[in-house]
Amino acid sequence: MSNPTASAATSPSTSAQGSGGPVASTPLPVLRVPMLDRERQLFAYEITFHREPGDEQNLLQAVLSTITDGALTRLVRGNRAFLNMPAELLPEDSDVLLHQPRLGVVLQPHVASDPALVKRLQQMAQRGCQFMLDATDVDPESSLAIESLLQMVQFVRLDASRLTPEVLKARAEHLHARGIWVVAGQVNDHPTYERCLEMPLQAIQGRYLLIPQPVAVPVLTANRLSMLRLMRVLQESNPGPVELGNIIRDDAVLSYKLLSCVNSAYFALPRQLKSVQQAAIFFGVTRMRNWIDTMSMCSMDDRPPELLRAALIRAHMCEKLATGMPNGHTEMAFTVGLFSLLDTLMCAPMEFLLTHLRLVPEISDALTSRGGPFGTLLKQILAWEAGELTSEHVPPQRIQRMAAIYLEATQWADQVYANASGKPTN
Description:
Elements: E1 30-36, E2 42-49, H1 56-68, H2 71-75, E3 81-84, E4 103-107, H3 115-126, E5 130-136, H4 144-150, E6 155-159, H5 165-177, E7 181-185, H6 190-196, E8 203-204, H7 222-236, H8 241-247, H9 252-262, H10 276-283, H11 285-298, H12 305-321, H13 329-339, H14 342-346, H15 350-357, H16 361-369, H17 372-385, H18 396-421
Parallel strand pairs: 2-3, 3-4, 4-5, 5-6, 6-7, 7-8
Antiparallel strand pairs: 1-2
Helix pairs in contact: 7-11, 8-10, 9-18, 10-11, 11-13, 12-13, 12-17, 12-18, 13-16, 13-17, 16-17
């Protein structure tokens, strides 16, 4: 699914020299984690950074450079974002954050014990910098020091995994009454998510977004069944360019989105492709099957956009990590990444969906049991998403490669989703 002609995505600490130019510096290992409002639309991103002990100064310089050159703004598409980095690293003599009204910083409760730091943060707050206090399970009324933070922050995040529902609700209501926006963090299951919807919360964050909702009996709508039938035909019939064009000929919307996406400026094709058949000849049939699957999934406008973007990011990362495998494996790896969230998107068990798709065993094993080489790739991506890839488990070179692939995947996913959904990138 990668563009065969356009250059790789420019990442927050890299730059390209011309079209397809070489990477100028090492990419910053970064992960964007969405916070969604109660309508399941993006409220803000949390930006977390992989840090090695003793590397704080390098982290600071890298973060500042991503802000000043606009790369961080591109990563979050201009949306509100909070940097999760030690407040002690915030520069004393730099106004870089003050010129970014939609960029804030996550504060930890322990900063309240450093009067000099609190004073500096208060000065930044007075000048317009936004802060989110990551209160976890700390009682916001526990001390005067914490109170000093509450008087300067606009947001407080409470840890739903460490507070009882009653305490979470009481603290959310108390903070809301004070005019502070509250975010529930670590919402990692659907029952907790449903409870959060009854609280005065500005946003909800956690793994609930990526896990399927339990259902007693899976029920697929006509549109979902039609999508699965299309995916099954594409997998089973092994069509050529002409047959591929015929398969989706009657779906004018899908054909239009497909051609609009491949002809977009992002992919910088040497000439405009005027039919699905032409696109299949140019890109190859297998790659076009992946494109059609992608366009179909992006048409699910009743699902959270960030969930669809997550599926696209996984697909691109799987494909890139499969580079070097035998011919055809990169396209299969793409399918594994794309379909890895199919159960969450369809609200049905993966095993049930696979009976409708009948994928090749290598893909099915990866999706159900994380088995085989594609399952290994998928597990690495899940570990990256969870922030569990550290130098204790993998070489630093591996982390740097994952960082570069992830940053490229986010830009690719944002662009493809915007084209496929017809919605702006934010």
